[in-house]
Write a structure and sequence with these properties.
The complex is a heterodimer.
Chain A lengths: L11 H12 L3 E3 L1 H12 L5 H15 L20 E3 L7 H6 L15 H14 L4 H7 L3 H8 L3 E2 L1 H5 L5 E2 L2 H21 L6 H37 L3 H17 L7 H18 L5 E2 L3 H4 L1 H9 L5 H17 L6 H4 L10 E5 L11 H13 L5 E6 L5 H12 L6 E4 H11 L3 H4 L3 E3 L3 E3 L13 E3 H9 L3 E2 L4 E2 L13 H33 L4 H4 L4 H4 L10 E4 L2 E3 L1 H17 L5 H9 L4 H13 L9 H18 L12 E5 L9 H5 L30 H9 L13 E4 L7 H17 L4 E6 L2 H9 L8 E4 L2 E4 L5 H11 L6
Parallel strand pairs in A: 1-2, 4-5, 6-7, 7-8, 11-15, 14-16, 17-18
Antiparallel strand pairs in A: 3-11, 8-18, 9-10, 12-13, 19-20
Helix pairs in contact in A: 1-15, 2-3, 3-10, 6-22, 9-10, 10-11, 11-12, 12-15, 15-17, 17-18, 18-31, 21-22, 22-28, 25-28, 26-27, 32-33
Chain B lengths: L1 E8 L7 E6 L20 E4 L9 H5 L4 E3 L5 E3 L19 E4 L5 H9 L10 E6 L7 H12 L3 E6 L5 H5 L7 E5 L5 H8 L3 H13 L3 E8 L7 H13 L5 E6 L5 H7 L17 H9 L3 E4 L2
Parallel strand pairs in B: 2-7, 7-8, 8-9, 9-10, 10-11, 11-12
Antiparallel strand pairs in B: 1-2, 3-6, 4-5
Helix pairs in contact in B: 2-3, 7-9
Classes of the chains: A alpha/beta, B alpha/beta.
């Protein structure tokens, strides 16, 4: 295994490109919207699927393309770096409403010119009433619309953008080339029985697929033409050669399988890019890049066709290209994924299909280049397993030390058995990759949204169970309860009320998902994405019609830790210790813990009830049981693809809700865990902030008590790490050792690390209550950061800049 | 009595360890960063930042606790008759009572929570206070831990009777011995203890089969000079039995706790010792054949 010291600085080319893209101001590009509108207007007679193919064709053939100074990997999503295309066929109403404020958003602002505004308003006018949003809402009963308007279940993202959350079959794309796909489409198209009802649909499907794949071929050839013509005017001989190579690469991969690493990477990027021009769902992922690109890399190294440094530059250039891709979302949805991330996941490590360690030299190179770039894209995931190369784990620690949250770890030891239990074939289970953030699927064989369906706000459901079904926030009773908390005589009554409510709300999330999926299937079928997913072509179906080999999906449950902490607080303080009466608790909740009495109740709830994240069975098992109520209800339902081809077509639980904890909390009144009204709820499966006082091993133990094997949509755990915990090699080894225990012995699902920054410490100094979990670890000494004197805190803060202490 | 149990400790012995802090210490080192560990009885800590003026503590200890003119309370600790009654009285945990009477089984329960993490050389470290100054319950715990095959390190000043050390030797994997100074006067002046007791005990300990790591706290104004540090290292070297020295640079993380305990921090230096101030000591120790580490 080559583990020689990597170059640590970026080449001038890469650092210039990086700077340029980081400086690029996000803006709005209207080209795609214009082309799609023109095609839809001119082809109203045609089936949706053909309209979409023609619109994609026009866009790929007419959109502005460019090759930037120094670029080695080419392909642009829109007319400028970081300009977000508009997808009017999904939703337009928000755009007209928010257009004047796009550049004034507090986060994720987009620049837009007055001319573009006018153009978009005109476009939006035509689409009114015809878009996915309208159709999806029309598929829902009034009750379902009310549940969404009340913000208890949220599916805005699913109706304003495409599905995303998928990785296509890159290994096959690389081995077959586009010509291979066109042949296959032709083969199946010829067999269509046009005298059958299904035959008519299939005929349209193959026609549309052919148009789309040929359009992609044309798109790639446009870069050949552009590079060639630029080379003619290029004076710098080195750049001239580079442009000629780009032209040659594009000429080959437009038709044929790539012949070397450079071409394979370029084709991978083109496919990835085209999926994000076709549809605007996020979390479109690249799968196991270190596996499918490795044969090319190894071959080129052996034949002397490439140097390691040049391969690194190509990868770095690709990471920059990923950052140029941008999406604009309605503000309501933006808040759920703050920072505008696209979650373009790259997965490395893991095992081969025969259970051997899959880490190779390219895994190291991808890790190192992502570490050097320190960008928000790609989202890098490492698949851990018990035989993983320890040098590779050390290299991961070195990247984690840089403090930008990557890589995150998924655990083969729980994911693979989980997949096998679902009925996934072994060779596929061993080939899973992370999708988007932490969720998982088998690339190229799985439908959309292994997670990311509707968001369920658990704490609103919990509060409704205390109020006989009344949702105080909306004033509505969605589901009559089992009684009012003040009349409950034991904790069992509370739990029964929860069971009663959660069953209802779980069913409603599935009803909403079904309405949404039906609208997506009928109105915005994806062609390229379907082409590259097994077995859409042979079945003659889009993914949404049941084309994929596997189909499992999950929604997201938000407020996990708050649920456990609220149950434990009521059980312990109201029913067991009887230090708080039912009336006192209700009063305090209704008044948001205002006043001295309210504050006293809140402090008791915060300080004298067990909290999830401290390895305390009292609360951990309550949470597990409460969550199981959701899961057992959910497991009864099927997706819209049931009995239409794919294996599975079932739901599982998921907690990888990213930044949804903030907007979800913003619609939840005070909760019995001592949380004030409208403040954030806990993130993912992590403990509520500042409540895990026993350190990381206790957090691991608590998280592992969740039914992780059933939460295949992801058990998101973010841990804070003080810089000194990972500074020295021996510290890194200790961190590896607890990760190993978490994954191998406790069967943890996922973990990622955020290095405690200077900003966090400043915040902790100001607001100690929220940061009580920051432990200062020095030999023979024990204390929390928040109990240090202000001077000592300042000293630590000053030194944290240089990662020197604590 | 125990004043804290800290899981995932990474600087007090090998691997991932759970630290048990015993309450009570025969020494009074001026720089002590765990002042709540000095007294053998309950200690009352009060963190004014967390105080919400609920007044529950005053209701419990009327004579000893009074409201100040402004925000917060004043505690006359001598007048507190039943400190244990103050445990769990303050809803905000601004007033807390340090010290829990945990039995061997309670401690084992806590320790075993992290058993999965002790592979790769981890285990339990007993610290304090001075764990060796504890009574019979210490040896009972050690026996149980030995029985359960959990590695035990003891962090000690060795400022105890030899018999208190001797009883633990066969039950302890590694002694982390604090070697503060070899100078009798200085030792006494800064710790109220006797350097000879420590040194004699260390000599005896080296004659046993015990595994020993020496930890030298580097304290400005006390031993933070080339001359004094050389004396200490030379002494350790003369024992001809020890391989490893950890240097623990002085820090001020404990200062706030003095305030919370109503104690005065009389030690002068305000600035912590930086790692780079230890370079000459480390070189000297290494020249004598020791393996060294900063911060344990």
């Amino acid at each position: 295994m080559i583990t020689e010291k990597q170059q640590t600085t970026l080449s001038k080319r890469i650092s210039d490109l990086r700077e340029k893209v980081l400086r690029a101001k996000p803006s709005v590009c209207t080209e795609r919207a214009k082309f799609y509108t023109q095609i839809y207007q001119a082809n109203e007679d045609k089936p949706v699927i053909v309209k979409r193919a023609l619109a994609l064709e026009k866009t790929l053939k007419k959109m502005t393309i460019f090759i930037d100074e120094g670029e080695l990997i080419v392909g642009n999503q829109s007319s400028q770096h970081r300009a977000a295309p508009i997808f009017p066929e999904y939703a337009v109403e928000w755009l007209s409403r928010e257009m004047d404020n796009l550049d004034k958003r507090p986060g994720d602002a987009f620049f837009i010119t007055e001319d573009h505004k006018k153009e978009l308003l005109k476009i939006a006018g035509w689409w009114k009433g015809k878009v996915l949003w309208d159709r999806g809402r029309a598929n829902m009963s009034q009750e379902l619309r009310d549940l969404q308007d009340a913000a208890i279940i949220k599916a805005t993202g699913n109706l304003t953008s495409g599905d995303g959350h998928i990785a296509v079959d890159y290994p096959r794309v690389l081995s077959a080339g586009l010509e291979g796909y066109l042949q296959e489409i032709r083969y199946y198209h010829r067999q269509v029985k046009r005298y059958e009802r299904e035959g008519v649909k299939k005929d349209h499907f193959y026609t549309a697929l052919t148009i789309s794949v040929k359009a992609l071929r044309a798109f790639i050839l446009r870069y050949h033409d552009l590079a060639l013509s630029m080379s003619k005017h290029e004076i710098n001989p080195q750049r001239k050669t580079e442009l000629l190579t780009i032209a040659q690469n594009c000429e080959i991969i437009a038709e044929k399988p790539p012949q070397n690493f450079y071409q394979a990477l370029q084709l991978t990027y083109f496919i990835h890019l085209s999926l994000q021009i076709e549809s605007n769902g996020h979390s479109v992922s690249l799968g196991r890049m270190d596996q499918y690109l490795f044969p090319y890399y190894q071959h080129d190294l052996i034949t002397g066709n490439i140097t390691k440094d040049f391969a690194a530059e190509l990868l770095e250039n690709t990471w920059i290209k990923l950052l140029t891709i941008n999406k604009i979302r309605p503000w309501s949805h933006t808040r759920f994924s703050a920072g505008g991330p696209l979650y373009q996941n790259v997965t490395i490590g893991g095992q081969t299909s025969d259970g051997k360690d899959a880490v190779n030299d390219l895994s190291f190179l991808i890790l190192d280049t992502v570490g050097r770039m320190r960008l928000t894209q790609p989202n890098l995931s490492v698949r851990f397993h018990k035989n993983i190369n320890n040098d590779f784990m050390m290299a991961c620690m070195q990247v984690i030390e840089k403090g930008f949250g990557m890589p995150s770890f998924n655990n083969d030891e729980v994911v693979i058995p989980g997949l096998l239990r679902l009925g996934v074939e072994p060779q596929d289970a061993y080939d899973y990759s992370a999708i988007g953030c932490i969720e998982i699927a088998v690339p190229g064989k799985w439908g959309y949204r292994c997670t990311g369906m509707s968001f369920l706000n658990l704490m609103r459901v919990f509060l409704a169970s205390l109020y006989d079904g009344l949702d105080r926030q909306s004033g509505k009773v969605f589901h009559k309860g089992t009684g009012h908390f003040r009349d409950f005589s034991s904790f069992e009554d509370v739990f029964r009320a929860w069971q009663h409510q959660i069953k209802y709300y779980t069913r409603k999330t599935v009803e909403i998902d079904t309405a949404v999926d039906t609208a997506l299937e009928e109105n915005v079928p994806d062609l390229l994405c379907s082409a590259f997913v097994d077995s859409c072509i042979s079945r003659g179906k889009t993914i949404k019609e049941g084309g994929s080999k596997y189909d499992f999906i999950s929604g997201l449950q938000v407020g996990i830790a708050n649920l456990g902490n609220s149950l434990a607080a009521i059980k312990k303080l109201v029913f067991e210790d009887k230090v708080i009466s039912k009336e006192q608790l209700l009063d305090a909740l209704e008044n948001d813990y205002e006043g001295e009495e309210g504050e006293k109740i809140r402090q008791l709830l915060l300080n004298f009830a067990p909290k999830y994240g401290n390895d305390d069975d009292y609360v951990d098992l309550l949470l597990r049981d409460a969550y199981r109520e959701f899961i057992s209800e959910l497991e009864q339902y099927h997706t819209t693809r049931y009995n239409r081809g794919p294996i599975g077509c079932k739901y599982y639980a998921g907690t990888s809700s990213i930044s949804a904890n903030v907007p979800s909390g913003a619609v939840v009144p005070a909760t019995p865990d001592g949380r004030k009204a409208f403040t954030p709820v806990a993130e993912g499966s992590s403990p509520s902030s500042g409540t895990d006082l026993q350190g990381p091993t206790a957090v691991f133990k608590s998280v592992a008590k969740l039914p992780t094997e059933k939460i295949m949509g992801g058990v998101l755990l973010n841990q804070k790490l003080s810089p000194a915990t990972i500074r020295k090699d021996q510290d890194k080894q200790k961190l590896i050792s607890i990760i190993r225990t978490f994954f191998e012995d406790l069967k943890g699902w996922h973990v990622q690390y955020n290095i405690v920054s200077r900003d966090t410490l400043l915040a902790a100094k100001k607001d100690p209550e929220k940061y009580r979990d920051l432990i200062v670890r020095v030999a023979g000494y024990s204390a929390f950061f928040t109990t240090l004197s202000p001077d000592t805190q300042d000293d630590i803060i000053a030194r944290t800049e240089h990662s020197l202490t604590f | 009595m125990i004043f804290n149990i800290q899981r995932f400790s990474t600087h007090d012995g090998e691997g991932i360890r759970t630290l048990i802090f015993y309450k009570g210490c025969p020494l009074h080192c001026q720089w002590c960063s765990n002042p709540e560990g000095i007294s053998y009885g309950y200690s009352i800590l009060y963190n004014q930042n967390l105080c919400k003026d609920f007044g529950e503590c005053m209701a419990t200890e009327k004579e000893a606790i009074a409201r100040t003119n402004k925000h917060g309370i004043r505690i006359d600790r001598k007048k507190v008759t039943h400190p244990e009654k103050l445990i769990d009285v303050c809803p905000a945990k601004a007033l807390t009572v340090s010290g829990s009477k945990l039995g061997v089984n309670d401690l084992l329960h806590e320790v075993e929570k992290d058993t999965p993490f002790y592979s790769h050389g981890g285990g339990v470290t007993l610290s304090g206070g001075e764990p060796l100054s504890q009574g019979e319950e210490l040896t009972s715990l050690l026996r149980e831990l030995k029985h359960k095959n959990i590695s035990v390190n003891i962090e000690t000043s060795l400022h105890v009777n030899w018999s208190q050390v001797e009883r633990c030797i066969d039950l302890t994997d590694t002694f982390l011995v604090d070697m503060k100074h070899t100078d009798k006067d200085k030792f006494t002046r800064f710790t109220r203890g006797d350097a000879a007791l420590v040194m004699n005990n260390l000599v005896k300990l080296t004659e046993s089969a015990a595994r020993i790591i020496i930890r030298i706290p580097v304290i400005p104004g006390f031993n933070h000079s080339e001359k004094e540090m050389k004396q200490i290292i030379d002494f350790i070297h003369s024992l001809n039995r020890i391989h490893t020295i950890h240097f623990l640079p002085y820090h001020t993380f404990g200062v706030e706790k003095y305030k919370m305990l109503g104690m005065k921090y009389i030690f002068g230096p305000e600035k912590p010792v930086r790692d780079d101030e230890l370079t000459t000591y480390i070189h000297y120790a290494q020249s004598k054949g020791f393996q060294t580490k900063i911060g344990g």
